[in-house]
Specification:
The protein is α+β, with helices and mostly antiparallel strands. 52% of the residues lie in helices and 13% in strands. It is built from 4 helices and 5 strands. The strands form 2 sheets. The chain has a 3-stranded antiparallel beta sheet with strand order 1-5-4. A two-stranded antiparallel sheet has the order 2-3.
Length: 116
């Protein structure tokens, strides 16, 4: 894990700099909320962006942004996987292309037999 004591100062990013590196460029106040309140994942787990305060400024680092994104994705994936297990008793598996084509052919035959 990226430790605040071992972070070289040249690797620290202001929240504005960090926001500019992210897709869709969220506002720096959004990153502040991620640091302060975190993001509530679907699993109910609250994931926070690691940061350090130096004087009156808040800094984060690229590894912390990456770690935050991964932690949020893992928490969400765990929720959906658990939900799928509860509703179906097994994980949902996407049909293969061949299986899907067979389903379409079966549906066409059923419609033709019904005169539609």
């Amino acid at each position: 894990m990226f430790d605040a004591q071992t972070v070289p100062q040249d690797e620290l990013l202001t929240l504005t700099q960090a926001a500019a590196r992210l897709p869709h460029r969220p506002h720096s106040s959004c990153l502040w909320r991620w640091c302060r309140k975190g993001v509530l994942a679907r699993s109910g787990q609250r994931v926070r962006l690691q940061h350090v305060r130096i004087g009156g400024k808040i800094f984060t680092a690229q590894p912390w942004l990456t770690e935050f994104g991964k932690a949020l994705a893992v928490a969400d994936a765990a929720h959906f996987e658990q939900r799928d297990l509860e509703t179906t008793g097994r994980r949902y598996v996407l049909p293969t292309q061949q299986k899907r084509m067979e389903q379409i052919d079966d549906a066409r035959q059923a419609l033709a037999a019904a005169g539609i």
